[in-house]
From TrEMBL:
UniProt keyword terms in alphabetical order: Oxidoreductase
GO MF annotations, alphabetized: oxidoreductase activity
Protein name: SDR family oxidoreductase
Sequence similarity: Belongs to the short-chain dehydrogenases/reductases (SDR) family.
CDD domains assigned to the protein according to its UniProt record, in alphabetical order: SDR_c (cd05233)
Lineage per the UniProt record: Bacteria, Pseudomonadati, Bacteroidota, Cytophagia, Cytophagales
All copies of domain Ketoreductase, residue ranges: 6-174
């Protein structure tokens, strides 16, 4: 895969899957534009064009300095709040929806003219295995990520004729800072690994490779899909 002369925006690039994707694309020659609330030291090392951005707030002119043509957008923000349904405040449902769905809507509305101008562009959103496979204590995140999947298909249909592909990646538990509380002891990590048919949890690089493939010319015949990268958890027993 080569990304020379391609402009890619990664939202949520300071850590985890977003950072792994930025590192991979940087090595493949992409011109990177990154956005998150704060720029991490690891992201700063890549010398990307950085935008300070809180996607739960109105974007205003925050992304106006993007180049005229964008060849790809990756939207990575997310969180993990697992608790019994009856103890999830309504504000948590709203917060998850604002972060995962409305944030993506804002970014894509601000980017779509640039994506269409590229003459062949790709959008990668992130869902979760829990949106398609019922999992206890995942009601809020599964609800918002299911909406992400609906948004993926709707936008893929709407913009196919404009040459803009839209896909989503659905990971299972991945070794990122967001998952630290679920993996902070050897016993927890081992139990999580054993729940996957492949007997391990995901690494950020696993998702970065899939996102980069979907952004690349090698993925140019794929749109409207939700692609699981979940160690078999969603389909195998």
């Amino acid at each position: 895969m080569q990304f020379t002369d391609k402009n890619i925006l990664i939202v949520g690039a300071s850590s985890g899957i977003g950072l792994a994707t930025a590192r991979l694309l940087h090595g493949l020659g992409a011109s990177l534009y990154t956005a998150s609330r704060h720029q991490s030291a690891e992201l700063a090392e890549l010398n990307t064009t950085f935008f300070s951005l809180d996607v739960t707030q109105p974007l205003g002119s925050a992304l106006d300095a993007l180049p005229e043509a964008l060849h790809g957008v990756v939207y990575c923000p997310g969180n993990i709040k697992l608790r019994p349904f009856e103890r999830i405040p309504l504000d948590d449902f709203r917060g998850d929806f604002e972060l995962n769905v409305l944030g993506a809507v804002q970014v894509l509305q601000a980017s779509m003219k640039r994506l269409k101008k590229a003459g062949g562009a790709s959008v990668v959103l992130f869902s979760t295995v829990a949106a398609d496979t019922g999992m206890a204590f995942h009601a809020s995140i599964a609800t918002s990520k299911a909406a992400v999947e609906g948004l993926t298909r709707a936008l893929a249909a709407e913009y196919a004729a404009s040459g803009v592909r839209v896909n989503a990646v659905a990971p299972s538990l991945t070794n990122t800072p967001l998952a630290a509380a679920l993996l902070n002891t050897p016993e927890k990590a081992e139990a999580s690994a054993k729940r996957h048919p492949l007997q391990r949890i995901g690494e950020p690089e696993d998702l970065a490779y899939m996102a980069s493939f979907l952004l690349s010319d090698h993925g140019s015949f794929i749109t409207g899909q939700v692609l699981p990268v979940d160690g078999g958890m969603g389909r195998l027993k």
